[in-house]
Amino acid sequence: MIRDTANTKVVEKIDAVWDRVRKEAEAITKAEPALGGFVFSAILAHDSFESALIQRLAQRLGNADLSSDAVVKAFQDALDAEPDIGHAARADMIATFDRDPACHRYIDPLLFFKGYQALQTHRMAHRLWEMGRKDFAYYLQSRSSMISSMDIHPAARIGRSIMVDHGHDIVIGETAVVEDDVSIMQGVTLGGTGKETGDRHPKIRHGVLIGAGAKILGNIEVGTCSRVAACSVVLHDVPPNRTVAGVPAKIVGYAGCEEPARAMDHNVETVAPTGEEG
Question: What CATH number does domain 169-278 carry, 2.160.10.10, 1.10.10.2910, 2.40.50.140, 3.40.50.300?
Answer without folding.
Answer: 2.160.10.10
